[in-house]
Automatic annotation (TrEMBL):
Gene3D superfamilies: Galactose-binding domain-like, Glycosidases, Immunoglobulins
Entry annotated with the keyword Magnesium: no
UniProt entry tagged with the keyword Hydrolase: yes
GO CC annotations, alphabetized: extracellular space
Source species taxonomy: Eukaryota, Metazoa, Ecdysozoa, Nematoda, Chromadorea
InterPro entries per the UniProt record, alphabetical: Beta-gal/glucu_dom_sf (IPR036156), Galactose-bd-like_sf (IPR008979), GH (IPR017853), Glyco_hydro_2 (IPR006101), Glyco_hydro_2_AS (IPR023232), Glyco_hydro_2_cat (IPR006103), Glyco_hydro_2_N (IPR006104), Ig-like_fold (IPR013783)
Gene Ontology terms, MF aspect: beta-glucuronidase activity; carbohydrate binding
Name of protein: Beta-glucuronidase
Function: Plays an important role in the degradation of dermatan and keratan sulfates.
Native source organism of the sequence: Mesorhabditis spiculigera
EC number: 3.2.1.31
Domain Glycosyl hydrolases family 2 sugar binding: 11-158
Length: 560
């Protein structure tokens, strides 16, 4: 390959050089590597799996086209068995394109700039834009990090293997399972065993589908409500001739999620979410998976006293969801559909694919308590209603055990077309920042009025999923001014007064500040090297507001 360089995987390629041409690149990049596959694997089936490729991927194996996938942040896999050279190197080639438009999810405005040419001074002329010049303006407030953002690997499976496991359980010990096999149309058998965290067998059964009961289960609880107890669901598959051909262990927890028009409940106990909206974002790695950063983030969650977060604005790495299972941190899992303005059949088809992939990936995680279909879509538009009704119905069909939400931003209680369709209303509001900046004395009353009006119209339990203000670390000004640490801190305190009122009025079932940590964005007049609404810096150092939030969350945690 020409103009090539070494590129680690996983990582966003944008920050891997000192050149703006790579950071701001829009279009195709190509990855290539050789992978040796030994002769001993000849009796196995080989799959090439990508955990995330942003945004559009075309995959070749030994120079033959294997498949294509649209959409980042979710896994996809292609079988390559028939193309493998056993006992030799195999060439893997991937083309990834990060171009976005109003036909992608998320959306961007993509336009070629008209070439203006003016003649002057006889034979002289000037042009404003070079031929083919274009601008891509994303419709979201985070950097469009691209490339192979998560792990890429070869999976080696037996000819008959487990393709999918679904485990549904509740807080009284009931369990239902469904196992899907690949390579066996009939005659295969499954043995099922369930083990507690100490390795004790608590149930055994047989069948590709079935149900059972575990006596006196230790329930999975979010932080502050109990322990995050996990169990292991072990499956062994026998071929028609009785040989064991595959085995898989799946972690799960006994817990239920329910809701009414005031409250969400975990295991029939009232649950109040205290946590964050955030981003998978860090220096150098960009949006690439980084285990150290993930661990630091979740440790800071515990330091602050949080029990919940939203995967704003895309599904996060599976490793983070698994670790949330183990730590007892509840998760609202969100699609990449942020800022939607276009509600066409083409976009709906892609959106349905994304919702399906997201739910199928994370359906067995006890930490996942709700599915978010979109962040801040323009649901004041009439065409959004049928669009989102289709998606709400799809999510409910795929999973009857969790509520479904939309996170609202540009729409208002007077004009929203969709909130009656969903189960819990999530609402982003920035009183004192984007609205009435500098008038902190209005924040409390404005928040209470806004949320009360939404509640009175739709009668749904609500979560404040975003509020906050930017602050530049070290910028101190008293009296407070915008972008100072003092202003961010005072706005948060004023918002908390409103949250206390709404909680006592049984309107709110959760609160999440925006944002956990500062993050990178595209260049913009209000973005001084990114978005600075974090209570931590991008390097995860605490601002003044972190201590204010910690004081609040640690007091709330025993109450929830």
């Amino acid at each position: 390959m020409e103009n090539s360089t070494v590129m680690p995987v996983p990582v966003a390629y944008n920050d891997m050089s000192a050149e703006a041409s790579l950071r701001d690149h829009v279009g195709w990049v190509w990855y290539q590597k050789n992978e040796f596959i030994p002769d001993r694997d000849k009796d196995l089936r080989i799959f090439l799996t990508f955990e995330s490729a942003q945004y559009y991927a075309v995959v070749y194996f030994n120079s033959e086209l294997i498949g294509e996938h649209e959409g980042g942040h979710l896994p996809f896999s292609f079988e390559v068995t028939d193309h493998v050279k056993f006992g030799a190197d195999n060439k893997i080639t991937v083309a990834v394109n990060n171009t976005l438009s109003y036909s992608t999810i998320p959306e961007a405005e993509f336009q070629y700039k008209a070439r203006k040419e003016m003649a002057f001074g006889g034979n002289q002329s000037m042009t404003q834009y070079a031929p083919g010049f274009f601008e891509m303006t994303v419709q979201f407030d985070f950097f469009n990090y691209a490339g192979l953002l998560r792990t890429v690997y070869l999976e080696k499976k037996p000819k008959i293997h487990i393709d999918d496991i679904r485990v549904v359980s509740d807080h009284v010990g009931a369990i239902f399972w469904k196992i899907v096999l690949d390579g066996c149309s009939s005659g295969c058998a499954a043995k099922v065993r369930v083990f507690d965290a100490d390795g004790n067998e608590v149930m055994k059964a047989a069948g590709l589908t079935g149900s059972g009961q575990v006596k006196n289960p230790k329930m999975w609880w979010p932080r502050g409500m109990g322990d995050a107890n996990l169990y292991t669901f072990r499956v062994k598959i026998s071929s028609p001739d009785g040989q064991i051909v595959d085995q898989y262990d799946e972690e799960f927890g006994f817990r239920s999620v329910t809701y009414d028009n005031h409250q969400m409940y975990i295991n029939n106990k009232p649950f109040y979410c205290i946590g964050f909206g955030m981003h998978e974002d860090s220096e150098i790695h960009g949006r690439g998976y980084d285990e150290a950063v993930m661990t630091k983030d979740l440790n800071l969650f515990e330091w602050v006293g949080a029990n919940c977060y939203r995967t704003s604005h895309y599904p996060y790495a599976q490793e983070r969801i698994r670790e949330s299972d183990r730590r007892g941190i509840a998760v609202i899992l969100e699609t990449p559909a942020v800022g939607l303005k276009v509600f066409t059949d083409q976009n709906l088809k892609l959106h349905k694919q994304i919702v399906t992939e997201m739910i199928m990936r994370d359906k067995n995680h006890p930490s996942v308590i709700m599915w978010s279909l979109s962040n801040e879509p323009h649901t004041e538009r009439k065409e959004s209603r049928n669009y989102f009704k289709t998606l709400v119905d799809l999510a409910h069909d795929l999973d009857q055990t969790r509520p479904v939400t939309i996170v609202y931003g540009p729409s208002h209680w007077e004009d929203d077309q969709t909130a009656d369709l969903i189960d819990v209303v999530c609402l982003n509001r920035y009183w004192g920042w984007y609205d009435d900046m500098g008038y902190l004395e209005t924040v409390n009353q404005s928040v209470v009025f806004d949320y009360t009006m939404w509640y009175e119209k739709f009668k749904k339990a609500m979560i404040m999923t975003e509020y906050g203000a930017d602050s530049i670390v070290g910028l101190n000004q008293q009296p407070a001014v915008d972008f100072s640490e003092q202003y961010q801190n005072e706005l948060i305190r004023e918002t908390h007064k409103a949250l206390d009122h709404l909680r006592q009025a049984k309107i709110l079932t959760g609160e999440m500040i925006w944002n956990f940590a500062d993050f990178m964005t595209a260049p913009a007049a209000l973005r001084a090297v990114g978005n600075h609404k974090g209570i931590f810096t991008r390097t995860r150092q605490a601002k003044q507001a972190a201590y204010t939030l910690r004081d609040r969350y640690l007091k709330l945690l025993p109450q929830v």
